[in-house]
Amino acid sequence: MDAVAPVNAARRTVAILENVPIATDTYRLRINDPVMARAIRPGQFLMVKPASGTDPLLARPFALYEVVRDDSGVPVAVDLVYVVIGRGTSCLSRLRPGDLVTTWGPLGNGFGAAPGGAVIFVAGGIGQTPFLSLGRWWLGQSDYGGVRHSTGSVDSATLLYGVRTAGLAAGVADFERAGIAVELATDDGSVGHQGYVTDLLARRLESGERPSRIVGCGPPAMLSVLSRLVEKFNLPCDLSMENHMACGFGACFSCVAPIRQADGSSDLRRVCVEGPIFSSRDVVWTGSGH
Ligand SMILES: Cc1cc2nc3c(=O)[nH]c(=O)nc-3n(C[C@H](O)[C@H](O)[C@H](O)COP(=O)(O)OP(=O)(O)OC[C@H]3O[C@@H](n4cnc5c(N)ncnc54)[C@H](O)[C@@H]3O)c2cc1C
Ligand code: FES
After folding, report:
1. How would you label 54-71 residue by residue, b for 16+ Cβ within 10 Å and e otherwise?
2. Which domains are present in the chain?
3. Which of 13, 89, 5 is nearest to 43 (CA)?
4. Cα of 114 to ligand 1 centre, how many Å?
């Protein structure tokens, strides 16, 4: 995996511009943070918490969804998409335009250079969030962090997107507008294939499709199945890991995952600084997940 080195991560208090529902329990949060917008690259993340009060005490990590640009293309704001899970995301969902949040980032390694050919993104649940900007970056449509891939670096991008039920599918129109084909899977069959999102990938690989790169993001059980599938077909695959994080910058070790080392042994590595993007070949899975 050809990961991009992290850039400076600064802490700022910035205002919310929008916080709008886009799917069941799912919101798009627009943050007025031009400094972050100019620096952040696909696959990187930021820590976010309400600026006032101590509830929650700890900020929560969120991947870049998209950089918002003004009419002349200058990055001015950052969009995140989040699903309400517990205390931190419930607090975020109550924030209104003008309210302040504390952010730090960009954090993590982010994705590397465009691999060429056709790429497939495999997302489970809210794991689709890194793929809008990544698709647009690799398709050569936009620069991120001052880096632009040439148009046609990637011929096509497809998102295989699995959710429990149709109402949870968030941002499908955003992907389609960006020229990223979307194929859905749901647990209850309310839209698309009824079953696992990895079934959609297995079907394509079994019929002879050979993408230049597969990228996955979602729950550990899904990433573990995906890793076994790509290993069987000997295809390159990156995973964006979403381990629990307390600090986001390497100080607390709450986010460690077992990662294979060059000598074949495995060692615990901090997902927030050495990831969140790892080659699927390097992630060691125990049981159905970590
Ligand atoms: C690098 C990174 C990028 C992320 N990007 C996004 C994103 O773009 N959009 C988004 O909605 N979420 C994203 N997440 C996950 C998000 O950070 C968690 O959903 C959030 O921290 C939950 O906070 P909470 O206070 O609402 O829930 P909590 O009260 O902290 O937790 C509620 C329940 O959810 C479980 N839980 C919390 N976090 C996780 C997790 N990461 N994995 C599995 N179970 C968890 C807890 O064990 C608990 O059972 C990302 C995580 C990481 C590490
Ligand atoms: S979240 Fe603290 S070390 Fe990774």
Report:
1. eebebbbbbbbbbbbeee
2. 10-107 (2.40.30.10), 118-279 (3.40.50.80)
3. 5
4. 28
pLDDT of residue 197: 98
**pLDDT tens readout for residues 234-255:** 999 999 999 999 999 999 999 9
Q: What are 104's strand-pairing partners? A: 11, 47
**Residue 17 phi, psi (nearest 5):** -95, -40
Separation of alpha carbons 195 and 162, rounded Å: 8
What is the Cα–Cα distance from 65 to 79, expressed in whole angstroms?
5
Is the Cβ–Cβ distance between 149 and 109 less than 8 Å? no
pTM of the predicted protein model:
0.94
Q: Which ligand is nearest to the CA of 108?
A: 1
What pLDDT is attached to residue 54?
A: 74
Q: Of 251, 249, 269, which Cα lies nearest the Cα of 259? A: 269
Pocket test for ligand 1, best of 62, 79, 85, 270 (most atoms within 8 A of CB): 85
Share the mean pLDDT of the chain: 93
Q: How many CA atoms lie within 13 A of 278 on its CB side?
A: 27
